[in-house]
DNA sequence: GTATAGTTGACTAATATTGACCAATGGCGT
DNA sequence: ACGCCATTGGTCAATATTAGTCAACTATAC
C-alpha cells in the first residue's frame, strides 16, 4: 500500500515538470477528491513536503475563487543561495536536521552523492570528537556542526 | 555460532546484489521478524556496518509508511587500498602535507575539485577550532586532522 | 580477566491519516 | 452600502503506525 502523502507529493512534482514554471496552482477540494481523501490531507502534504527547507513557498486564499499556489524558490545570485542555506542551517543544527537537509540537497542535484558522503563523514567526526574525546556540551556541539556544515556548503556554492 | 549481526549484514548485501541499484529499502519490523530478533537489532547492524565511513548513507522515516533506505555510495573497499590510505596519511599530518596529498589526488583524477574543496574546508575548520576556540596542542591538532582526513578518504575508497 | 562487540526490551519520538470545528472571501439580495 | 450565506481553505487534536535511543546484560576476542 503506497503512502497517500507521497503519492500526492509526486503528483504535485509532476505538475511542476509539466508546466515548466516556478509555480503551480491548485484547488484543495479538487485535489482531495482526486485522491479520495479529506481536504486537510493536502495541508499536511504542503506542510511536510513543500517547505522553505525544501525550497518551496506556499500562498493561498480562502473563499470564492480560493486557491493554493506553490512556488519553487529560485536564486538569481550565488549569494542568495548561500543566505538561504545559512537561514536553514541556523546557529545550531541537530544531526537529524542536517541529514535531512543533505538528502534534500542531493535530491535537488545541488550535491553529488559522494559530496554528501564527505559532509556526513566530517559532521560525524566532529560529533565523535565533541562527545567522547573532549567533553563539549550538546548545544556547543550542534553549534560547531552548524558552522562546519555552513562552511562546507558555502564553499561548494562559490566553487 | 554465526553472529546475528553478520547474518543480517550479509542479507542486506545480498539485497544490493539482487536489485543492482544504489539503494535498498527495508521495513525494520519485517526484517526483525525474518531473523526473529528485536527491531533495535536492525539499528545496531546499520550503525556498525552501514556507516558513511564505509560508503553508505541511511535514510529513514518513522510513523505510518515508515521505512529504512540504505544508499551505497562507494563500495568494493579492498583492504589494501584502505591500509594504503593509512600509510600515506600516517598518525599525524601537517597542513602542508595534507594539501599536497589532496592536490596529487585531484591531479590523478581520483578526487573531483569540489570533493577536494570539501576536504580542505573540513580540515581547516578542525584546525581553526583546535587552535583558537579550544587550546589544543599542535601535535594533537595534526593528529585529529589526520584522523579526519583518513575518514574522509576512506569513505571514498581511494588508493 | 578485561575490553570490545552483540543482544534485548522498555521507553521515546516522529509521521500519516482523519474529522470536527474555525476563518476568510466574494457574490447576491435587499 | 450592508449583511447573509455559500464556498473555499486552515487548524488542531485524536489515533494508529512506524522507527530510534539507551542502558543493562551476555558473549566473544585478545
Keywords, separated by commas or semicolons:
mainly alpha; homodimer; 64% helix; 159 residues; 7 helices; Phenylalanyl-tRNA Synthetase, Chain B, domain 1
Short description:
Two copies of one chain form a homodimer. The first copy, chain A, is mainly alpha-helical and 159 residues long.
The secondary structure category of chain A is mainly alpha
Number of strands of chain A: 3
Strand content of chain A: 5-15%
- Number of domains as seen in the coordinates of chain A: 2
Quickly count the helices of chain A. 7
Rg of chain A, rounded, reads 19 Å
Largest interchain contact: A-B, 31 and 32 residues
Q: What value does the average pLDDT of chain A take?
A: 94
Identify the quaternary structure here: homodimer
Helix content of chain A: 55-70%
Low-confidence sequence ranges of chain A: none
Q: Give the spatial strand order of the biggest sheet of chain A.
A: 1-3-2
Biggest sheet features of chain A: 3 strands, antiparallel
Task: Please give the alpha-carbon distance between the first and last residues of chain A.
Answer: 43 Å
Provide structural commentary.
2 copies of one chain form a homodimer. Chain A has 159 residues and is mostly helical. Chain A has 2 domains: 4-72, Phenylalanyl-tRNA Synthetase, Chain B, domain 1; 78-158. Chain A contains 7 helices and 3 strands, in the order αβααββαααα. Chain A has helices at 4-19, 28-35, 40-49, 78-89, 95-107, 113-133, 138-158, and strands at 23-26, 56-61, 67-72. Chain A has a 3-stranded antiparallel sheet with strand order 1-3-2. In chain A, a hairpin with a 5-residue loop joins strand 2 and strand 3. In chain A, helix 4 (78-89) runs antiparallel to helix 7 (138-158), helix 5 packs antiparallel against helix 6 and helix 6 (113-133) packs antiparallel against helix 7. The longest helix of chain A has 21 residues, at 113-133. The model of chain A has no long low-confidence stretch (mean pLDDT 94). The interface between A and B is medium-sized, with 31 and 32 residues. The structure holds a DNA duplex (30 and 30 nucleotides).
